Amino acid sequence: MPTINPVKGTHDVIADEADAYAFIESLFFSIAESYGYRHIVTPVIEHTEVFDRAAGEGSDVVRKEMYTFLDKGDRSITLRPEGTAGVMRSIVTNKLYATPDLPLKYYYCGTAYRYERPQLGRYREFRQLGVECVGENSVYLDAETIAFAYHFLEALGFESIKLKINTLGDKASREAYKTALRAYFADKIDGMCADCHERLRLNPLRILDCKVPEDHELAKMAPKIQDYLSPESKARYEKTVELLRRLDIAFEEDPSLVRGLDYYGEVVFEVHCISPEGKDYGAICGGGHYEGILSSFGGPSEIDVGVGFGMGVERIYSLMKEFGLTERLVSQTDVILMPLGDGAVDTAYFLADAIRGLGYSVEATYRSGKLGSFFKRAERKKAKLALIFGEDEIAKNTVQVKDLQAQQQEEVALAALTEYLRTKLGAAE
Ligand code: HAM
After folding, report:
1. What's the gap in Å between 414 CA and the centre of ligand 1?
2. 318 CB less than 6 Å from ligand 1?
3. Residues 153/211, Cβ–Cβ less than 8 Å
4. Is the CB of 84 under 6 A from ligand 1?
5. What residues have CB less than 8 Å from 162, skipping those under 6 apart?
6. Chain centroid to CA 10: how far?
7. Segments in the chain below pLDDT 50
8. Would the pTM count as exceeding 0.90?
9. For 281-319, how does the pLDDT look when each residue is reduced to its tens digit (9 = 90+)?
10. pLDDT of residue 1
């Protein structure tokens, strides 16, 4: 029988990698709670228009990368390509905005789907974690959200991260800028890629994101948003920059940063991971301030602002590995049981249950074995203590306990084992 491989761009997440994901996600959850966020879980499948309306039909994600299909009832359904749109749809559906306690602050983590060319850290099914802070228009919330993303990555151990920020200004600034971009590209578009033709028509900002080298060169010389900002947007951006400086957050201003989704306005940001040699591994995090999504779903326009970010868990993990940050996450075993002789297996069964009951992790095999292979297994499992017992120990109600790091062994009475383990291993967490 031929083997069946996973679908292109998907992968199984196993053991160390899965443990690391759990660590990344639980750290994110606890930091999110410290910032006053609550958890939200929205469906993976949504009506396609949720993403058309929110992310914008001009974005590459919506135009080219969505997994969209007709269900058996002929409804157009899409697997979410990102987290923001579903959260915003949920806020409107559930009238979550009807509260005096704005802003609404939600964090989430779940799978997302994009039909992209798979490469390192880029998948067709990936896990995205993120936050949305909705309903209050505040430069402080913008800066706080950027600081949150930055501090989270620092807490994961990243040292060489680069925060890039830019502003896309308010609506009037963006319209003026789009007009300038259309004029700039008008006599250049004939030599540009087919996507850019479409981008020029739908949203010329997207051209600045084009990865085709020749188009990218032309985009570099294009007018800059900074020259089209309204005085209000300029002042707001300057204030954001000042607030980040006050928290000692290092950043680089990048006037070409436009982000790939259409809902952004005012500040946008990305966090990139940089090797000591200066290699840029691309964005681990992207986000910014947005407007207009709630009303596109029929929600109230008075509070239709938000700020948030998203990060790919696979991407975080692959970069943690690259920079040696996952080593400390490898799970350890507190105690490994080594029953010698068939009569000891029964004792192993009860000891495993009793020691796990104390809160320690136990590696137990219900097979009598040879000491040599037990010790090899102990090494692979990074066990701290080995409990060795055969007929003699069972008769005396004792076990031999070997400290695998100090390589010291002593006989301990079963009645004293709890105290002994607590002294050796510390109180269980
Ligand atoms: P995004 O920049 O499209 O923004 O995605 C955010 C992050 O998701 C990226 O920086 C990357 O880490 C991860 N990501 C995206 N595509 C893939 C992929 N194919 N494989 C692995 N990871 C991927 C958003 O999605 C916005 N919703 C972020 C946001 C939230 N803005 C405001 N609120």
Report:
1. 54
2. no
3. no
4. yes
5. 250, 251, 252, 271, 272, 273, 274, 280
6. 16
7. none
8. yes
9. 889 999 999 999 999 999 999 999 999 999 999 999 999
10. 87
